[in-house]
Amino acid sequence: MKDKQNRQGKKQDERPVLTTRQGHPVSDNQSLRSVGERGPATLENYQFIEKITHFDRERIPERVVHARGTGAHGWFEAYGKIGSEPAEKYTRAKVLTQTGVRTPVFVRFSTVIGAKDSPETARDPRGFAVKLKTVDGNWDLVGNNLKVFFIRDAIKFPDMIHAFKPDPVTNRQEPWRFYDFVSQTPEALHMVTWVKSPWGIPANYREMEGSGVNTYKLVNDQGVAHLVKFHWQPKQGVRNLTAAQAAEIQAQDVGHATKDLYDAIARGDFPEWEFCVQLMSDGEHPELDFDPLDDTKRWPEDKFPLLPVGRMVLDRNPDNVFAETEQSAFGTGVLVDGVDFSDDKMLQGRTLSYSDTQRYRVGPNYLQLPVNAPQEKARAKTNQRDGQMAYYVDDGGEDKHINYEPSMMGGMKEAPKPANEYHQWVEGHLGRFETTRTADDYKQAGERYRTFEDWERDELVGNIGGDLKQCPEPIQLRMIWHLWHCDEDYGKRVAEIAGVRLEKALDLPPLPGKPAPHEKRSGETFTSGKKDVPARAQQEGAPAK
Predict the structure, then answer these.
(1) From the centroid of its chain, how far is CA 426?
(2) Annotated binding site for heme
(3) CA 425 → CA 37, 40, 45, 343, 436, distances in Å?
(4) Which of 99, 246, 345, 366 has its CA 20 to 30 A from that of 518?
(5) Per-residue pLDDT in tens (0 to 9) along the chain, 545 residues
(6) In angstroms, rounded to a whole number, what is the distance separating the alpha carbons of residues 61 and 63?
(7) Burial 54-85 (b: 16+ CB within 10 A, else e)
(8) Nearest to 125 by CA among 188, 57, 176, 175
């Protein structure tokens, strides 16, 4: 604690200036360069590219994040409808419009922060990565079990993971590092409220939701786009663990979730998920108090309901864990025609980072591995050659002399363009922008707190309060200040558990450079009500028995 107190004393103006690896001073470490506040990111993001590509190469051979995990094979089948409408109204993606076709899939589940041999009872988001091997090539939907994330700009990702990973000096995950980052990043409050509740420890991989997290677009034959969120809803129901239940399991088995999935498939109890989407017209939607491109926010399901699209069943375990599960490689840039990118800044940053990581970790020819290669109907035909571990040539036929395009002598040709391409109008000043629609940094976290069952709230405040006991006072006070602005009862209860004077925390000013939270909204005082937890077990994540 003495070392921690010494660290507190360093004044802001005494700290060294952050630079790039080229020695250039960094004046904005919070925002990508983009075309306007909501516009797409640009390729000349040197600071971000240097930062994220170095981050991608920090570990070998295991994944930097999502190292602990397991996988399974299965299939996906579309209903041919999105809700009650024909799927073709919204997308031309065959995998979502064609009925009676079973698309092969490989799914990898994982934890995020822990190393390869860490326990699967860790309080952590769970990765939910799906590779759909469609007739038009691979589609990777790379997400988590929760529908939101900690940050909304990809340039913050290395810092976030560094804060959550073990201290480089003590080699331990220190609570003060986690809350130090979160206390300066209010957009993380919503995700923290989820992760520190029982939803932060799913009972297993079969009984948890999945989400693409980011905002994508669906595009139809007319070139019309809709914003979309993708979700996997388990037919088995949702079940989460309390901290005590997780500790009891961990004392006996650090790989309980891997065993549960393997055993279920082996005995023929195949897990199934319904694939659903939320849709919104393409645009800025100023009528909302959040930006639909902000991945720290949920789209309210009463306004944007979950619409069923298809189902996924996992029915085959891998024959070899290393060859299939560990060498499986996913990327958010792997889309099929009819699914497109939005300007979600986390999605745009992930699209570079994920595939870059795979080229480094597995090798430049990772897509030649059977677990990653597209199905035979969509076999890769490229002019790319050689590189480490190449074992066949992605050629398009008998003419192996022509490995370039265009050519009048042979080789391959471009595919026909869609009759109506989607063209997004982009206009704005190039710069570094933070979103100005930040009310929900506190609002949605408070709503989530009030929506939890009593037992879930008890777990949440107990977990955060216990963590804050181990943090220096400045971090304690700022976190209490944030939580009170989410919900007065939330902040008060955590302060009591942490042994912090609430009045002292509330005397703090807003964070420098951050807008003050909105004043308390009418009708949002906390009310407690007893509910029948067991009766809602399958829907709301009641604890395991």
Answers:
(1) 26
(2) 354
(3) 14, 11, 21, 12, 21
(4) 345
(5) 555 555 555 566 677 777 776 677 787 888 888 888 888 888 778 788 878 877 887 765 777 788 899 999 999 999 999 999 999 999 999 999 999 999 999 999 999 988 888 899 999 999 999 999 999 989 999 999 999 999 999 999 999 999 999 999 999 999 999 999 999 999 999 999 999 999 999 999 999 999 999 999 999 999 999 999 999 999 999 999 999 999 999 999 999 999 999 999 999 999 999 999 999 999 999 999 999 999 999 999 999 999 999 999 999 999 999 899 999 999 999 999 999 999 999 999 999 998 898 888 888 888 889 999 898 888 887 877 888 778 877 776 667 788 888 888 878 788 888 888 888 888 899 898 888 888 779 999 999 999 999 999 999 999 999 999 999 999 999 999 999 999 999 999 999 999 999 999 999 999 988 877 865 443 444 333 333 333 333 333 444 43
(6) 7
(7) ebbeebeeebbbbbbbbbbbbbbbbbbbbbee
(8) 188
Q: Buried b vs exposed e over 222-234: b needs ≥16 C-beta within 10 Å?
A: eebbbbbbbbbbb
Under 8 Å CB-to-CB from 327, ≥6 apart: which residues? 362, 366, 369, 371, 372
Strand 430-432 relative to strand 272-281, pairing: unpaired
- Cα–Cα distance, 299 to 130 (Å, whole number): 22
Question: Which residues, 6 or more positions from 506, have their beta carbon under 8 angstroms from its beta carbon?
Answer: 480, 481, 484
3-state secondary structure of 343: coil
3-class SS of residue 490: helix
For residue 301, the 8-state DSSP code is T
Q: Could you identify the residue written with the tokens 């663990």? A: 241
* Residue 493, both tokens: 């209860």
- Asked if 458 and 417 count as a contact pair (C-beta separation under 8 A), the reply is no
- Among candidates 110, 246, 208, which has minimal Cα distance to 538? 208
The residues annotated as belonging to the active site are: 66, 144
CA angle 85, 86, 90 (to 5 degrees): 90
- State the virtual CA torsion across 333, 338, 339, 342 in degrees, nearest 10: 100
Instruction: Determine the straight-line distance between the first and last CA of the chain, rounded to whole angstroms.
Output: 38
As annotated, the binding site includes: 354
Least Cα distance to 229 among 210, 244, 214 occurs for: 214
CATH number of the structural domain 34-186+202-373: 2.40.180.10
